[in-house]
Amino acid sequence: MYARPLFVVVGIFGAFSGARDTGPIRRQPLISPQRAGLRSISRPFSQSGHFVPEARIGMSAGCGYTLALMNDAIKPSPETLSQAGLPELSVVVPTFNERDNVTVLYRRLEATLSGISWEVVFVDDNSPDGTWEVVRGLARKDSRVRCIRRIGRRGLSGACIEGILASNCLYAAVIDADLQHDETQLPKMLALLRSGEAELVIGSRYIEGGSADGLNKQRAGASQLATEVAKRALKVEVADPMSGFFMIRRDRFEQLAPKLSTQGFKILLDVIATAQVKLRTIEIPFTFGSRQHGESKLDSMVALDFLGLVLAKLTHDVVSLRFLLFAMVVGTGLVVHLAALFIAHEVFQEPFAEAQAAGALIAMTSNFILNNFLTYRDQRLKGFAILRGLLLFYLVCGVGLLANVGVAFAVFDQEPIWWLAGLAGALMGVVWNYAMSGLFVWRKR
Ligand code: GDD
Ligand code: MN
Question: Tens digits of per-residue pLDDT, 287-299?
Fold first, then answer.
């Protein structure tokens, strides 16, 4: 019957859709957080005030011991931290063209975090304005300042994830560089994590005492709509899941990190929606100020990123954000193809074969352009690389077409149901094009 070719399609889909960084196929951890007793206690400190790795509590002896050792490795106590010269709090600051803001932010952190053992990790995506150079200058004078300079990558969420994972502290905060967030809230956030009352503290604009005055009317409307969609679709209970200002226990983050999307900018929403075991969360109000220098990097494309994230979370990450965008582009390609075919064949009276070929070429080209601007905008090809990428894309799609027709024929041979054969072929083509484009056209550097 048609089962075999379908298996092939589904198998290849599974293998390749997991090949990219957004990792759509999620594996459960060997020991689930619940089974390890992670939720069974309310505070992570012993009576003497020492940090107790939670996984030690409520576990059976054998695996418990191994897990306790494992957790010792990733969850140091404040004492071992200070022995190792490590700070307790890491403030992660994603930056892109924030040259004029980073020094001011550093000074403010220094003032507000006195008495706390802290570090700041700036994660800069090789800003053309040389933000990373300014940060290196600060780092030369103060070893608490660190800089990760990322080459060939773009993206707010990915930058935050890398910054947090580069730290060894007990707690990590994320704060924007442009001074729109209120850094004076950081000590309060830290106190809530230290006491064990919370595992995640959110700086919230949408609870009493907070405000989003720094947003213009348009942005405020979009932000509220997105918040509403996230709350309803993903059953998120916090008031401001779109906030870019939060502090989290780093061990909790470490558990979630492999499942987070590096694309897009909604890292907090991703953290909340991904945590299967709910994080004890507290929101504290703050006033979102206006930008001092430079401009916002969030453009209208982030709306699509946001919808992609919501859809991916709704499908329990079976389909990745990137694959969804790719599939959406394929949809537009179909429309472009038919429109070009119509114009060439009906309007210009070209023979069908030529018109069809022209339609395919135009659709592939428009798909390439859209993918470069949307699906792979964090790895956008520029200059001469665009031409090389386009030629490779034609090649990939050409082979994809052969695969499409091959699978369709195989299915039709087994079971002459035209739509089933057509669907299997089309699915094969899309999955092939997606997997191969990621490997050859927009490959990670
Ligand atoms: N490394 C890196 N890479 N940093 C980036 C990138 C990037 O691609 N894009 C933006 N950033 C940095 C900025 O330099 C800034 O420090 C911070 O991330 C926030 O970016 P903005 O461009 O200032 O964003 P915004 O003010 O429009 O949006 C903020 O508020 C939203 C809520 O309305 C952000 O905090 C969003 O996360 C938040 O959802
Ligand atoms: Mn901003």
Answer: 999 888 898 888 7
